[in-house]
Structure prediction request, 397 residues.
Amino acid sequence: MTPNTLPQRSPLSAWPHWLPQISVMDLYLAKELAMPFLFGVGAFSSIGVSVGAVFELVRKVVEEGLPFHLALQILLLRMPYFIVLSFPMSTLLASMMAFGRLSNDSELVALRSCGVSVYRLVAPAVVLSLFVTGMTFVFNEAIVPAANYQATIIMERALGTDDEQPSFREENIFYREFGEVEQGNGEKKNILTRVFYAERYDGKQMLDLTVIDRSQAGISQIVTAKTAAWNPTERAWDFKNGTIYLVAPDGSYRDILRFEQQRLQLPRTPLDLAVRDRFSNELNIIEAQKRLELLRQTGERAEINKLELRIQQKYAFPFICLAFGLVGSALANRRHQRLGRATSFGISVVVIFAYYLLAFVMDALGLKEILSPIVATWTPLLLVCGLGATLLVRASR
Prediction:
């Protein structure tokens, strides 16, 4: 080595000492996992797009006259949804194919003979699974809902279905409001303060309304009207052609007032309940929680339970990546196990099918309210994690 030549440093020597140290083995295993994962994302998302979007769009282009450039735009907007769906499956496939290849070339045997435990071998796969879990959560919250909603809007406008099928709830708009009201003895009590009911909503105004207002102690009123429209400037409701019945504490009518137009300071919530009900895959968790609060005012138990179930699924779905990564790594690290690429792919398909079949059954039980949303959502995931942990323990023996 000449005096002007500096020794070459290993890329790992620049790694900060306060971070977990990455060995050459970790980098090697990460490389082995990365390529099958990318292959899986491409393969599974392509299958999903073909089955779930392309065939439908082609039919709408041919039969319903959807412009081709809009069909292409809708396809691109739906791509993130199918890519996210492929993440768990790709994680399973990557762990199966990577460790299967190492096992076929006896590299796992060599590593085990050097004292490397199974738990240490699968650590890179678990780290990859955790990374994909976080990436799935980000996609599901920041990209997929907005893209799905935009695709739906473009489809409706292009085909005119937003006019044929109104994007709002047409009948039975019901809203309840609770609040603290001061009683005669000075104490405050949480009671039902207001009930808002409209028979219909035509997209611009409520029709045939009845409002019961008990928000002031000792004073109750019943308001009926033919129509009511939300005034965004005044942030109030403009009632037309109605009657106000003032009710005394003993239940008798105190006064009856008829009006042609009356402005009432009521919340905007009934209008929010009437507008377009976006599908759960068009909402992120925060938006779904807000929608759930509105639905709870209606008392529609079936819709409330369905949305609660979908919210739990939004929380649980990213962790499928971790569960599948654990199962795939454990299966491929079993002693005397020889897995080719075709075999790895086949086993991955079987595991994926079994999991989603179980998840479908649990989802049906959750929708029927036989199981709570939490139990119906998290049970399949916990079972898969338990299976992966059991297989890993057995592989380490």
Notes: Confidence is low (pLDDT under 50) at residues 5-10, 162-166. The chain has two domains: 21-162+316-396, 171-272. Residues 171-272 form one domain.
